[in-house]
Write a structure and sequence with these properties.
This protein has 233 residues and is of the alpha/beta class. It folds into 2 domains: 105 residues, Colicin D (Four Helix Bundle (Hemerythrin (Met), subunit A), Up-down Bundle); 120 residues, 2-Layer Sandwich (Nucleotidyltransferase, domain 5). It is built from 10 helices and 5 strands. Strands 3-2-1-5-4 form a 5-stranded mixed β-sheet. The chain is elongated and about 65 Å long. It starts with a helix and ends in a 5-residue tail after the last strand.
Protein backbone atom coordinates (compact mmCIF):
# COMPACT_ATOMS: atom_id res chain seq x y z
CA UNK A 1 0.00 0.00 0.00
CA UNK A 2 3.00 2.34 0.18
CA UNK A 3 2.42 3.31 -3.48
CA UNK A 4 -0.83 4.99 -2.50
CA UNK A 5 1.03 7.70 -0.67
CA UNK A 6 4.00 8.05 -3.00
CA UNK A 7 1.64 8.91 -5.83
CA UNK A 8 0.08 11.79 -3.84
CA UNK A 9 3.27 13.05 -2.17
CA UNK A 10 1.81 14.58 0.99
CA UNK A 11 4.10 16.46 3.31
CA UNK A 12 5.26 13.60 5.51
CA UNK A 13 5.72 13.69 9.25
CA UNK A 14 9.51 13.45 8.86
CA UNK A 15 9.53 16.50 6.56
CA UNK A 16 7.44 18.55 8.98
CA UNK A 17 9.58 17.43 11.92
CA UNK A 18 12.75 18.51 10.10
CA UNK A 19 11.38 21.94 9.18
CA UNK A 20 9.91 22.56 12.63
CA UNK A 21 13.17 21.54 14.31
CA UNK A 22 15.15 24.04 12.24
CA UNK A 23 12.70 26.81 13.16
CA UNK A 24 12.83 25.94 16.86
CA UNK A 25 16.63 25.94 16.89
CA UNK A 26 16.69 29.39 15.31
CA UNK A 27 14.12 30.88 17.71
CA UNK A 28 16.00 29.39 20.68
CA UNK A 29 19.25 30.84 19.24
CA UNK A 30 20.87 27.44 18.91
CA UNK A 31 21.81 28.31 15.32
CA UNK A 32 22.62 31.72 13.86
CA UNK A 33 20.52 33.49 11.28
CA UNK A 34 22.73 32.62 8.30
CA UNK A 35 22.65 28.93 9.20
CA UNK A 36 18.88 29.06 9.63
CA UNK A 37 18.31 30.72 6.28
CA UNK A 38 20.53 28.34 4.31
CA UNK A 39 19.48 25.16 6.16
CA UNK A 40 15.76 25.89 6.14
CA UNK A 41 15.66 26.95 2.52
CA UNK A 42 17.56 23.83 1.48
CA UNK A 43 15.18 21.56 3.44
CA UNK A 44 12.07 23.30 2.07
CA UNK A 45 13.28 23.26 -1.53
CA UNK A 46 14.18 19.58 -1.23
CA UNK A 47 10.52 18.78 -0.48
CA UNK A 48 8.95 21.41 -2.73
CA UNK A 49 10.98 20.56 -5.84
CA UNK A 50 9.94 16.89 -5.70
CA UNK A 51 6.29 17.68 -5.01
CA UNK A 52 5.68 20.90 -6.92
CA UNK A 53 2.93 19.42 -9.10
CA UNK A 54 0.83 18.23 -6.18
CA UNK A 55 0.90 19.63 -2.65
CA UNK A 56 -2.19 18.37 -0.83
CA UNK A 57 -1.22 19.19 2.74
CA UNK A 58 -2.27 22.81 2.32
CA UNK A 59 -2.39 23.81 5.98
CA UNK A 60 1.14 22.66 6.80
CA UNK A 61 2.73 23.60 3.49
CA UNK A 62 1.23 27.11 3.69
CA UNK A 63 2.74 27.66 7.15
CA UNK A 64 6.16 26.34 6.18
CA UNK A 65 6.11 28.33 2.95
CA UNK A 66 5.58 31.48 5.04
CA UNK A 67 8.78 30.66 6.88
CA UNK A 68 10.62 30.17 3.58
CA UNK A 69 9.36 33.53 2.32
CA UNK A 70 10.41 35.26 5.54
CA UNK A 71 13.88 33.72 5.33
CA UNK A 72 14.10 34.85 1.72
CA UNK A 73 13.41 38.45 2.83
CA UNK A 74 16.20 38.51 5.41
CA UNK A 75 18.88 41.12 4.79
CA UNK A 76 21.97 41.12 7.09
CA UNK A 77 22.30 44.91 7.11
CA UNK A 78 18.61 45.51 7.94
CA UNK A 79 17.65 46.44 11.50
CA UNK A 80 14.03 47.11 10.69
CA UNK A 81 11.21 45.76 8.52
CA UNK A 82 10.41 47.17 5.10
CA UNK A 83 8.14 45.99 2.31
CA UNK A 84 10.88 43.79 0.91
CA UNK A 85 13.36 43.06 3.70
CA UNK A 86 13.43 42.12 7.39
CA UNK A 87 16.21 42.09 9.95
CA UNK A 88 17.25 39.26 12.28
CA UNK A 89 14.99 40.23 15.18
CA UNK A 90 11.99 40.60 12.91
CA UNK A 91 12.76 37.27 11.26
CA UNK A 92 13.00 35.53 14.64
CA UNK A 93 9.65 37.04 15.67
CA UNK A 94 8.02 35.93 12.42
CA UNK A 95 9.34 32.38 12.76
CA UNK A 96 8.08 32.24 16.36
CA UNK A 97 4.59 33.14 15.14
CA UNK A 98 4.77 30.45 12.46
CA UNK A 99 5.76 27.84 15.05
CA UNK A 100 2.61 28.73 16.99
CA UNK A 101 0.58 28.40 13.78
CA UNK A 102 2.03 24.94 13.10
CA UNK A 103 1.31 23.82 16.66
CA UNK A 104 -2.30 24.96 16.22
CA UNK A 105 -2.58 22.97 12.99
CA UNK A 106 -1.18 19.88 14.71
CA UNK A 107 -3.82 20.18 17.45
CA UNK A 108 -6.76 20.36 15.03
CA UNK A 109 -9.19 17.42 15.21
CA UNK A 110 -9.26 15.45 11.99
CA UNK A 111 -12.36 14.51 10.03
CA UNK A 112 -11.94 11.11 8.39
CA UNK A 113 -14.04 10.76 5.25
CA UNK A 114 -14.81 7.23 4.08
CA UNK A 115 -16.30 5.74 0.95
CA UNK A 116 -16.57 2.04 0.20
CA UNK A 117 -18.03 -0.58 -2.07
CA UNK A 118 -20.79 -2.85 -0.82
CA UNK A 119 -19.48 -5.89 1.02
CA UNK A 120 -16.04 -4.63 2.02
CA UNK A 121 -14.57 -5.85 5.29
CA UNK A 122 -14.13 -3.82 8.46
CA UNK A 123 -10.49 -4.86 8.43
CA UNK A 124 -9.94 -3.25 5.03
CA UNK A 125 -11.51 0.01 6.26
CA UNK A 126 -9.45 0.05 9.46
CA UNK A 127 -6.23 -0.76 7.61
CA UNK A 128 -6.61 2.16 5.20
CA UNK A 129 -7.63 4.60 7.94
CA UNK A 130 -4.62 3.68 10.07
CA UNK A 131 -2.31 4.00 7.09
CA UNK A 132 -3.76 7.40 6.18
CA UNK A 133 -3.63 8.73 9.74
CA UNK A 134 0.01 7.65 9.98
CA UNK A 135 0.89 10.26 7.36
CA UNK A 136 -0.28 13.31 9.29
CA UNK A 137 -0.46 14.86 12.76
CA UNK A 138 -3.68 15.29 14.68
CA UNK A 139 -6.31 13.23 16.45
CA UNK A 140 -9.25 11.74 14.52
CA UNK A 141 -12.57 13.19 15.70
CA UNK A 142 -14.96 10.90 13.82
CA UNK A 143 -15.60 8.92 10.66
CA UNK A 144 -17.83 10.66 8.11
CA UNK A 145 -19.56 9.15 5.11
CA UNK A 146 -22.56 9.66 2.82
CA UNK A 147 -25.77 8.92 4.70
CA UNK A 148 -26.61 6.23 2.13
CA UNK A 149 -23.45 4.37 3.16
CA UNK A 150 -24.05 4.34 6.91
CA UNK A 151 -26.04 1.12 6.66
CA UNK A 152 -22.95 -0.71 5.41
CA UNK A 153 -22.17 -3.18 8.25
CA UNK A 154 -18.39 -2.94 7.86
CA UNK A 155 -18.44 0.83 8.41
CA UNK A 156 -20.25 0.53 11.72
CA UNK A 157 -17.95 -2.28 12.81
CA UNK A 158 -14.82 -0.33 11.83
CA UNK A 159 -16.02 2.74 13.74
CA UNK A 160 -16.75 0.62 16.81
CA UNK A 161 -13.33 -1.04 16.75
CA UNK A 162 -11.60 2.32 16.29
CA UNK A 163 -13.61 3.90 19.08
CA UNK A 164 -14.88 6.68 16.79
CA UNK A 165 -18.41 7.86 16.01
CA UNK A 166 -19.75 7.21 12.51
CA UNK A 167 -21.46 10.38 11.26
CA UNK A 168 -23.76 10.41 8.21
CA UNK A 169 -23.45 13.38 5.86
CA UNK A 170 -26.48 14.46 3.85
CA UNK A 171 -26.21 14.68 0.08
CA UNK A 172 -26.70 18.47 0.20
CA UNK A 173 -23.75 18.89 2.59
CA UNK A 174 -21.54 16.72 0.37
CA UNK A 175 -22.41 18.87 -2.64
CA UNK A 176 -21.67 22.05 -0.72
CA UNK A 177 -18.17 20.75 0.05
CA UNK A 178 -17.56 19.51 -3.52
CA UNK A 179 -15.73 22.64 -4.80
CA UNK A 180 -12.97 22.02 -2.23
CA UNK A 181 -12.41 18.41 -3.34
CA UNK A 182 -9.38 17.67 -5.49
CA UNK A 183 -10.19 14.16 -6.74
CA UNK A 184 -12.72 13.71 -9.53
CA UNK A 185 -14.37 10.34 -10.22
CA UNK A 186 -16.94 10.24 -13.02
CA UNK A 187 -18.45 7.07 -11.56
CA UNK A 188 -18.90 8.61 -8.11
CA UNK A 189 -20.23 11.81 -9.67
CA UNK A 190 -22.91 9.83 -11.51
CA UNK A 191 -23.91 7.87 -8.38
CA UNK A 192 -23.70 10.53 -5.68
CA UNK A 193 -23.52 13.86 -7.47
CA UNK A 194 -20.10 14.68 -5.97
CA UNK A 195 -16.57 14.08 -7.30
CA UNK A 196 -15.42 12.04 -4.27
CA UNK A 197 -17.45 10.67 -1.37
CA UNK A 198 -14.43 10.37 0.92
CA UNK A 199 -13.16 13.91 0.28
CA UNK A 200 -16.51 15.68 0.43
CA UNK A 201 -17.51 13.74 3.56
CA UNK A 202 -14.24 14.72 5.27
CA UNK A 203 -14.60 18.37 4.23
CA UNK A 204 -18.23 18.56 5.30
CA UNK A 205 -17.42 16.87 8.59
CA UNK A 206 -14.58 19.30 9.34
CA UNK A 207 -16.87 22.28 8.77
CA UNK A 208 -16.98 25.44 6.64
CA UNK A 209 -13.61 26.59 5.36
CA UNK A 210 -11.98 23.24 6.09
CA UNK A 211 -9.15 21.96 3.90
CA UNK A 212 -7.92 18.53 2.93
CA UNK A 213 -4.73 17.49 4.68
CA UNK A 214 -4.76 14.15 2.86
CA UNK A 215 -6.73 13.72 -0.38
CA UNK A 216 -8.39 10.46 -1.30
CA UNK A 217 -6.43 7.25 -1.11
CA UNK A 218 -7.91 3.85 -1.88
CA UNK A 219 -7.35 0.14 -1.37
CA UNK A 220 -9.47 -3.01 -1.33
CA UNK A 221 -12.72 -1.26 -2.21
CA UNK A 222 -12.29 1.50 0.39
CA UNK A 223 -11.52 5.20 -0.05
CA UNK A 224 -10.31 7.54 2.67
CA UNK A 225 -9.59 11.27 2.88
CA UNK A 226 -8.75 13.52 5.81
CA UNK A 227 -9.69 17.16 6.38
CA UNK A 228 -9.13 19.67 9.17
CA UNK A 229 -10.84 22.88 10.13
CA UNK A 230 -8.86 26.10 9.81
CA UNK A 231 -10.32 27.32 13.09
CA UNK A 232 -8.47 27.02 16.38
CA UNK A 233 -9.90 24.16 18.47
Amino acid sequence: MEHLFRSRNPMTESTRTELLSIMHRFVEKEIDVATFVSTYQFAWKKWRDTNELYKPDKLHSSAYNRAFTAADCYQPETDYKTDWAIGENQLRSEISEIITEVQTINALPLAIGIGCKTGVSAGAIISLIEKACGQIDGKPAALYTAEEKCAEPALGEAARRLGLPLVPIARAALKEAAPRAVTKSSRVLALFGVPSVAETAALAGAGPGSQLVLPRVSADGVTCAIAASKETP
